[in-house]
């Protein structure tokens, strides 16, 4: 009974000894390098256990292994015994576990960690943080995009942990955050020494479309393209080059954002101070076209002084064309000063004012009544447009095409491109209009025929045609028509057939219409007028004489 109790006690003691001395798998243990062979280090981890670790696990990325026999090292115990009776250990996993503990503390304390960039991956780089591998996004490498990361590879430098997840094994770091922090400190120190209006030297670091960044000794200032010169600068590279040392003036400092605005033109005299005295209104000056827009062209009168030639002031005749079809960039032109606005720094210029008004020239060389020849440029519903000298047009209205035809009929005989003769009938210089007349080339038959004829006059004409509605007659080679109702006073005599072609008849003029070119005639009106005259001269109804007696006396007296 006593022997059995002794055996149980010994077994309990043995188990307790084994439990206390044998380390747990998955833990970090301290071992000693007892040999190096075949690219591996043999490590005694105690407890009568040995394991093998590849030498490369003792080196940082890009470095040679630093291990020797007798060194004590920490390794990660994966398994107590493998198939060969050896412990399975890992120096890399031990470093990783230690690194994660250290990094978690640094992440919680928001302190910097040291690491080295050792590889490139999609979207960024890999960083060794003393055993743990982190991801460095490309946007977090520097404050500005880095084209070549070669000089940064393998270099020990500080990083800031942005995010980490131990369970997933993810760590994201930033080098940019460290640089921005140090730059902010440096900027604050430099900015404290600067003042608005101060003139300093700087080095051009970068050039963009809108300006250049100038290093003022640890802090950058923006030299905007509009502050590089008083003249128009199309691109900053026209004024500065990268690496050039330039003298600039501090225009503005934003204490909150630490942004600094710089200028070069502020160190030079403002040409606008003498614009009003140098460019009097109405004077003509030479200039160079610097820019062309839809609404006009900018002309440089001198460095820093530009004026706008509005599209309406570019040509007397070209009204609806793009300014680029009249002038070209860099072309030298003569312009007239039309207006100066010193407050807004604007000069209004005129190009056409340096040339004579073509309508004035035409009026001088072609007074009213002058016969001209020109090509039909356009045909519209209200007339013909004729091309004239000086690149201007004159218009022949419908009513000025023909004496005998209606305008709508007469215009059908003309085609675009035809050469025609016409007479200048009016020149309106202010409204830029020239009126022409084709019919003025010929005599007006109507005017000749009715010359001296007034309403109420009695004329003799010849019958040329008999129609149901009346008769056609001719007076001084001009046709007219007497309607049936005007053929006689008495309705019974209002018969066209009582006349014959060739008969000479007297008729009273009822109207002379120059616009419609019609002569109104009436036999009836003549008879009524004669009756009234006879009554007034030879008697009245009160005298007891009959109308027949009166007319008979009148006819006898006439005979």
Q: Compute the gyration radius: what is it?
A: 56 Å
At the fourth CATH level, what is the homologous superfamily of the largest domain? Answer: Nucleic acid-binding proteins
Give the class-level CATH name of the largest domain. Answer: Mainly Beta
* Biggest sheet statistics: 5 strands, antiparallel
The general outline is elongated
CATH architecture descriptor name of the largest domain: Beta Barrel
Rounded to the nearest angstrom, the distance between the terminal CA atoms is 196 Å
Main sheet: strand order: 3-2-1-4-5
Rounded mean pLDDT is 82
Counted up, domains total: 6
- The CATH topology of the largest domain comes to OB fold (Dihydrolipoamide Acetyltransferase, E2P)
Keywords: Repeat, Ribonucleoprotein, Ribosomal protein, RNA-binding
Protein name: 30S ribosomal protein S1
Organism: Roseinatronobacter bogoriensis subsp. barguzinensis
GO biological process, one term: translation
Would you spell out the secondary-structure blueprint of this structure?
Elements: H1 2-21, E1 27-37, E2 40-46, E3 49-54, E4 72-79, E5 88-90, H2 91-109, E6 113-121, E7 124-128, E8 133-137, E9 156-165, E10 170-174, H3 176-191, E11 199-207, E12 211-215, E13 220-224, E14 245-254, E15 259-263, H4 275-278, E16 284-293, E17 296-302, E18 305-310, E19 332-341, E20 346-350, H5 358-365, E21 371-380, E22 383-388, E23 392-397, H6 407-410, E24 419-428, E25 433-437, H7 445-449, E26 458-467, E27 470-475, E28 478-483, E29 504-513, E30 518-522, H8 523-538, H9 547-558
Parallel strand pairs: 13-15, 18-20, 23-25
Antiparallel strand pairs: 1-2, 1-4, 2-3, 4-5, 6-7, 6-9, 7-8, 9-10, 11-12, 11-14, 12-13, 14-15, 16-17, 16-19, 17-18, 19-20, 21-22, 21-24, 22-23, 24-25, 26-27, 26-29, 27-28, 29-30
Helix pairs in contact: 8-9
């Amino acid at each position: 009974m006593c022997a059995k109790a002794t055996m149980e006690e010994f077994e309990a003691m043995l188990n307790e000894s084994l439990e206390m001395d044998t380390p747990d798998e998955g833990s970090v243990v301290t071992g000693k390098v007892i040999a190096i062979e075949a690219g591996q280090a043999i490590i005694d981890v105690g407890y009568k256990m040995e394991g093998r670790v590849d030498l490369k696990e003792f080196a940082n990325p890009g470095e040679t292994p630093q291990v020797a026999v007798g060194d004590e090292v920490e390794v990660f115990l994966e398994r107590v015994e493998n198939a060969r009776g050896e412990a399975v250990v890992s120096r890399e996993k031990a470093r990783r576990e230690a690194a994660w503990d250290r990094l978690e503390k640094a992440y919680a304390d928001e302190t910097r960690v040291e690491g080295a960039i050792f590889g490139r991956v999609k979207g960024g780089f890999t960083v060794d943080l003393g055993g743990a591998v982190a991801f460095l996004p490309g946007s977090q490498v520097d404050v500005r995009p880095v084209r070549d990361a070669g000089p940064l590879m393998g270099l020990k430098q500080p990083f800031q942990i942005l995010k980490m997840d131990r369970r997933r094994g993810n760590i994201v770091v930033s080098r940019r955050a460290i640089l921005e922090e140090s730059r902010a400190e440096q900027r604050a120190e430099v900015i404290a020494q600067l003042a608005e209006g101060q003139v300093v030297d700087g080095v051009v670091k970068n050039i963009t479309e809108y300006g250049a960044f100038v290093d003022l000794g640890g802090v950058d200032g923006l030299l905007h393209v509009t502050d590089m010169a008083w003249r128009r600068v199309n691109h900053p590279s026209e004024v500065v080059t990268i690496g050039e040392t330039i003298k600039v003036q501090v225009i503005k400092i934003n204490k909150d954002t630490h942004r600094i605005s710089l200028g070069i033109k502020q160190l030079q005299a403002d040409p606008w101070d003498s614009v009003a005295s140098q460019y009097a209104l109405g004077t003509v000056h030479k200039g160079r076209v610097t820019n062309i827009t839809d609404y006009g062209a900018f002309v440089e009168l001198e460095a820093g002084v530009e004026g706008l030639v509005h599209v309406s002031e570019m040509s007397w005749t070209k009204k609806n064309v793009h300014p680029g079809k009249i002038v070209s960039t860099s072309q030298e032109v003569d312009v007239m000063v039309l207006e100066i606005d010193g407050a807004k720094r604007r000069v209004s210029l005129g190009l056409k004012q340096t040339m004579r008004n073509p309508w004035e020239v035409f009026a001088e060389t072609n007074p009213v009544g002058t016969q001209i020849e020109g090509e039909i440029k356009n045909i519209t519903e209200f007339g013909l447009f004729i091309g004239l000298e000086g690149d201007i047009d004159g218009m022949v209205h419908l009513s000025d095409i023909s004496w005998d035809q209606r305008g709508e009929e007469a215009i059908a005989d003309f085609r675009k491109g035809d050469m025609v003769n016409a007479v200048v009938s009016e020149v309106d210089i202010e409204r830029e209009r020239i009126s022409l007349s084709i019919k003025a080339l010929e005599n007006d038959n109507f005017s000749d025929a009715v010359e001296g004829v007034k309403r109420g006059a009695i004329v003799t004409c010849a019958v040329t045609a008999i129609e149901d509605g009346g008769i056609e007659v001719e007076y001084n080679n001009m046709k007219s028509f007497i309607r049936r109702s005007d053929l006689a006073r008495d309705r019974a005599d209002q018969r066209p057939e009582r006349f014959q072609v060739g008969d000479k008849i007297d008729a009273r003029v009822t109207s002379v219409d120059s616009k419609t070119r019609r002569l109104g005639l009436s036999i009836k009106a003549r008879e009524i007028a004669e009756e009234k005259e006879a009554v007034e001269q030879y008697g009245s109804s009160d005298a007891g004489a009959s109308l027949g007696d009166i007319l008979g006396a009148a006819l006898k007296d006439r005979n």
